[in-house]
């Protein structure tokens, strides 16, 4: 395979809350075998920004989110790169190098994650009140112990933030709540210690459309109110367009396009991004027939030479099967908002016309 050596990581953006540089994530598949699920991913996320990671199932979105907080299963490891985070005290740390106790304090205080499937994230034998109390107690500093009544009052205020009835929800077990209520309770729990970064993995999956709408609207309001940054992992392009300031498209473990939401949805410069968008019926304008994307993603253990998308790409040229493209900046902007695409034909004006993708 003609896989060029990864370039040296770019220097971290001084104003960024999170700077990801050249991250690889491996899974152990046997005693002496590994597969790389995320390859050379890098991006910056500034305070208050919202970024969506989109792509087909298996492209590495969730693995990347888990890896950023070192929440991977025992078979997974961040094998290369840096995850630089600016803490509340102004210090910049590499999450990969945090000691066990410091990592425990980092999670929830600095960055928290809302997992896919709220029912699986709750302990079914504990009430919602118990979950809040356990979280607060686990992160209390010595000499700063708060009363139980104070913690319950704080928990109630958090539930009110997500428009839930505290009296009812705090006393309930997870199975006594609807799917939407559980998801909102989980978001409130993730915000308990006012983290600077909230990572959400498919937070509206399996919820009805009205509940999805309520959660999306409240997340938007909470982000503006509390000023946390958000990394939103989803396969729902409509949610990405609505919730995110910027979008990163992943394919076969790599970031293949990143830019503002308008860049990606109206000026996409990667055939895969464009194919994803064209596979979804438009919600406005003239109705069009969705275009299916033939084939499937390659095996991560046997990636094709050159561009991983070339075997499925309708616009591939012979060179695409020989040369692996790197992210090339097409439009430079501050605060991590540059538009970049990993396509050898990204500058082909005839292939990528200006305007809406559809």
TrEMBL record:
GO biological process: peptide transport
InterPro entries, per the entry: AAA+_ATPase, ABC_Ni/Peptide_Import, ABC_transporter-like_ATP-bd, ABC_transporter-like_CS, Oligopep_ABC_C, P-loop_NTPase
Nucleotide-binding in keyword set: yes
Superkingdom of source: Bacteria
GO CC, one annotated term: plasma membrane
Subcellular location: Cell membrane
Transmembrane intervals: none
Keywords on record: ATP-binding, Cell membrane, Membrane, Nucleotide-binding, Transport
PROSITE patterns with a match to the protein in the record: ABC_TRANSPORTER_1 (PS00211), ABC_TRANSPORTER_2 (PS50893)
GO molecular-function terms, A-Z: ATP binding; ATP hydrolysis activity
Topology within the bilayer: Peripheral membrane protein
Stored Gene3D superfamilies: P-loop containing nucleotide triphosphate hydrolases (3.40.50.300)
SUPFAM superfamilies listed in its UniProt record: P-loop containing nucleoside triphosphate hydrolases
Residue ranges of every copy of the ABC transporter domain listed in the record: 20-277
UniProt xrefs under NCBIfam families: oligo_HPY
PANTHER family listed in its UniProt record: DIPEPTIDE TRANSPORT ATP-BINDING PROTEIN DPPD (PTHR43297:SF2), OLIGOPEPTIDE TRANSPORT ATP-BINDING PROTEIN APPD (PTHR43297)
Family: Belongs to the ABC transporter superfamily.
Name the UniProt record assigns to this protein: Peptide/nickel transport system ATP-binding protein
Native species: Nocardiopsis aegyptia
């Amino acid at each position: 395979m003609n896989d060029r050596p990864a370039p040296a990581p770019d220097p971290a953006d001084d104003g960024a809350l999170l700077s990801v540089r050249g991250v690889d994530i491996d899974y152990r598949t046997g005693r002496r075998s590994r597969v790389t699920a995320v390859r050379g991913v890098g991006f910056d996320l500034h305070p208050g920004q919202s970024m969506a990671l989109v792509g087909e199932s298996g492209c590495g979105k969730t693995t990347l989110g888990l890896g950023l907080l070192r929440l991977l299963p025992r078979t997974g490891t961040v094998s290369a790169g840096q995850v630089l985070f600016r803490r509340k005290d102004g210090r910049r740390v590499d999450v990969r190098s945090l000691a066990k106790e410091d990592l425990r304090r980092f999670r929830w205080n600095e960055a928290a994650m809302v997992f896919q499937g709220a029912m699986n994230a709750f302990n079914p034998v504990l009430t919602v009140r118990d979950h809040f109390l356990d979280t607060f107690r686990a992160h209390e500093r010595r000499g700063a112990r708060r009363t139980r009544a104070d913690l319950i009052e704080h928990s109630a205020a958090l539930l009110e933030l997500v428009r839930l009835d505290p009296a009812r929800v705090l006393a309930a077990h997870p199975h006594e709540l609807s799917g939407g209520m559980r998801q909102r309770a989980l978001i409130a729990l993730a915000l308990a210690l006012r983290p600077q970064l909230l990572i959400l993995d498919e937070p509206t999956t399996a919820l009805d459309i009205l509940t999805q709408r309520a959660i999306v609207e409240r997340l938007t309001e909470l982000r503006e109110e509390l000023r946390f940054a958000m990394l939103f992992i989803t396969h729902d392009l409509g949610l990405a367009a609505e919730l995110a300031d910027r979008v990163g498209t992943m394919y076969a473990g790599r970031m293949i396009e990143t830019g503002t939401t308008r860049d990606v949805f109206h000026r996409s410069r990667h055939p895969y991004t464009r194919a994803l968008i064209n596979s979804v019926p438009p919600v406005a304008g003239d109705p069009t027939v969705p275009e299916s994307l033939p084939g499937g993603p390659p095996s991560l253990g046997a990636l094709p030479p050159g561009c991983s998308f070339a075997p499925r790409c309708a616009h591939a040229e012979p060179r695409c099967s020989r040369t692996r493209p790197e992210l090339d900046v097409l439009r430079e902007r501050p605060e991590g908002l540059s538009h970049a695409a990993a396509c050898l034909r990204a500058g082909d004006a005839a292939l990528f016309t200006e305007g809406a993708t559809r």
